[in-house]
Amino acid sequence: MPYNRRAYYKISLIRGKNRAEYADKIIEIEHNALLFATPKVPYHWVPLDENQQGTFCIFTDTFLGKNKSGLQLDKLPLFQPGSIPVFEINDDQAEEIAFLFEKMKNEIISDYEYKYDLLRTYLIELIHYGQKLKPCHKVNEGKNAAKRIISLFIELLERQFPIESPGQRLSMRSATEYAERLAIHVNHLNKVLKENLGNTTTEIITRRILQEAKILLKQTNWSVSEIAYSLGFEEVAHFSNFFKKQTSFSPVTFRS
After folding, report:
1. CB 224 within 8 A of CB 251
2. Which domain, by its residues, includes 14?
3. Helix, strand, or coil here: 61?
4. Residue 43 pLDDT
5. Tell me, what's the pLDDT at 1?
6. What is the torsion angle, in degrees rounded to the nearest 10, for the CA atoms of residue 171, residue 126, residue 65 and residue 157?
7. pLDDT tens digits for 176-199?
8. Considering its fold, how many domains does the chain have in total?
9. Which of 11, 57, 141, 214 has the fewest beta carbons under 10 Å from its own?
10. Ramachandran category for residue 18: left, alpha or beta (phi over 0 → left; psi -120 to 50 → alpha)
11. 106 and 48 together in one domain
12. Do residues 60 and 80 share a domain?
């Protein structure tokens, strides 16, 4: 699935020994884990043994947006950039959560007319369960923090591409925005990328936007205005100046 299509949230109950890797943080899980994932924050989940079991659900903010409680995902600590939404839980807690997942599973295959309202209720209960748990304290930076930062930065960047319609628009264009999603200081992100890839964050973002601009100019019949909008430029003139600075050609001249 293309990165830009992963616009869903995920809640997972996982049994087994595992490791969650965020940009500069590692969380070791010995037995049971409850994980809350958002499309805004990339991570790697690494199984450490063969005894893996679990259940998960995926949903969009649109689905939960219909709830009458007014619960907004982006305002919850669980789904905020910079948080570590991984919880180590005991067997009793795991059974409670598994029972809640089982109710969701049974409901989704039922023919009850209002099943989606009920599913939203179960989902909200699951989110509140996580909100009450204490985050894992087994956090360390690890020896390969730089590699993780680079990998997750590239993943965040590539999630925004390809641009497939004029209505699709880049949501992140600045180094600061990427650093916030990775929960690290922008200077640290710049340092890691410069030392390992030879370019700053801004240079890498600029190069990727330019690459997409060239593709859209050559392979679509979109207007320059539509391309400028989809690439996050507020004005066509800003896009034209950007493109000419990078290539010495105006968008129109490059296209022709």
Report:
1. yes
2. 3-140
3. helix
4. 85
5. 42
6. 10
7. 999 988 888 999 999 999 999 999
8. 2
9. 141
10. beta
11. yes
12. yes
